[in-house]
Amino acid sequence: MKRVFSGVQPTGNIHIGNYLGALKQFVELQDDHQCIYCIVDMHAITVPQDPKALKEHILDVAALYLAVGIDPEKSIVFVQSDVPGHAELSWVLTCSSYTGELSRMTQFKDKSKNKESAPTGLFTYPVLMAADILLYDTDVVPVGNDQKQHIELCRDLATRVNGKYPGTFVVPDGRFLKEGARIMALDDPSKKMSKSAENIHSRISLLDEPSKIKKSIMKATTDSDGVIRLDTENKPGISNLLNIYSVLSETPVADLEKKYEGKGYGDFKKDLVEVTVDALTPIRERFEEIRHSEELMTILRDGAEKADEIARKTMKRVKENFGLGL
Length: 326
Ligand code: ATP
Ligand code: LTN
Hints:
3-stranded parallel sheet
């Protein structure tokens, strides 16, 4: 079975962009892959975090993983900082990377824009991400489109090290979802939906109450020509909503365009509220059941143990190939 690895940062409320771009694939892959899903808390501290809130967010993401359908009987679920190999391998890979290639990462450029000096962790973030992936001899990495450049860097690093020390790493492939791969912010469809955006109506979180979902969708930016048609360039707002509707209801966009021919944005948005509430309610209910349970802690502890076992084997090989240690 091919091995899958992916991670989500515990930096806030998981939104439908994370769900449709990443988590939904995580669940689908479980049946015919060996999957490892991580809560990447060490990535979260690349920007300042409140320690108490971070702990809560770690457990939130873990409970959400399970609530969307990740099954701990099939997949390994764990917290990144519970497995020391991530930090260890990250250093080894840092020494195989160049400042030039890291400076070209668009996420770093975005996040450090207008700052006189950026945190070093923000700069080396993609190297830690490469370590996450390579530590488990990963074959496939399901992620949203925004991570393409980071996956490319990971492949470059693996190939570079293998060139020097053959057989060190498995070179992984990214798996990007086309439909729904990039969900845009509801208040500004030129930006991606993000956990960290200030306006809460820019996103729909998986745990939003129906009243909040309604408010955010009804407020969503559209355009003035009143036609419900997919046209990302000229009608980014409606196209984004169509895309969300389509993936949540598993209906092709063309069918939706037909269904709403001659209808207004108001009707369309009302139906989208219903579709969204129907899709998210079972997730919210399951989340409430497990978030404060002892079961969740046991799953994370077991997960870390299993992950560590794989990580140790890789680190042994890496250290041997690099000539590190005794
Ligand atoms: P932030 O915007 O605060 O940096 P984020 O929302 O991008 O965070 P991550 O934890 O970085 O969240 O991402 C988790 C997963 O969700 C990744 O695989 C990422 O590619 C995917 N993802 C994030 N935002 C979107 C989006 N708007 N549309 C589709 N996928 C997304
Ligand atoms: N950088 C990713 C989160 C992430 C990740 C990973 C995804 C950290 N390590 C390893 C896949 C594999 C993000 O911001 N979405």
